[in-house]
Amino acid sequence: MPGRSPAKVPPAPIGFTPVPMDFERPPADPVAEFRRWFDEACRLPMPNPNAMTLATVDADSAPSARIVLLRGIDERGALFFTNRQSRKGTALEAMPRAALLFHWDLLDRQIRIEGRVTHATEAESDGYHADRPRESQIGAWASEQSRPVASRAAFEDRVAQTQARFGDGPVPRPPHWGGYRVALDSIEFWQGHPYRLHDRVVYVARNGGWSVTRLYP
């Protein structure tokens, strides 16, 4: 009957055995554990192991979610870049808190992060923009992200106009484009098991350290 069989998880590549987390004695540093899980995900045959769902709430308390790409993580939080005039950008300006979710099917793992949101530094935003392909730099100027556009042709015309504007010269970072950092106010590790008998542990930032709690699945 439906729901009675264990989930079928594709095997990891030959020669690669993920190191299990000890949920009975969780590691002291969740950032280091995140990096270990992320490094293992990067060894798998998936196109974007850094893809994460970003959930926000706007000024009218309306929730929304979309996929963005992680561009760095440390004790300060998880970093991504976007158009700050987009729907997610205006939501984050109005309500600077967010939730992130990583899901790696091939490892049967998830990581959830929740926290306050701040702007990345100007240097971080400038540096990341400078490293992007020129076509992406042009697109950051040409796209009024999340706003209506009449047609694909209209968008491509806007791209062509932007390319002509900058010619062969450098493409500076648009003033409306930059990074956000989601603080690690909480970070949860989830390891799947058959019959929904999963393992979960959550770290909550408190007084310069971490409160660690095991959760029922």
Task: Give me some keywords for this one.
217 residues; elongated
Mean pLDDT: 93
Large-scale geometry: elongated
- Fraction of residues in helices? 25-40%
Strand-pairing-aware structural class: alpha+beta
Major sheet characteristics? 10 strands, antiparallel
Give the ordered list of helices and strands. Answer: HEEEEHEEHHHEEEE
Head-to-tail CA distance between termini: 22 Å
Query: What oligomeric state do these chains adopt?
Result: single chain
The helix count comes to 5
Proportion of residues in β-strands: 25-35%
Rounded Rg: 20 Å
Query: Which stretches are poorly predicted, pLDDT < 50 over at least 5 residues?
Result: 1-7
Count of distinct strands: 10
Could you provide a short overview of the structure?
The chain is an alpha+beta fold and 217 residues long.
What this model shows, in words?
The structure is a single chain. 25% of the residues lie in helices and 32% in strands. The chain is built from five helices and ten strands; from the N terminus they run αββββαββαααββββ. Strands 1, 2, 3, 4, 5, 6, 7, 8, 9 and 10 form a ten-stranded antiparallel sheet that branches.
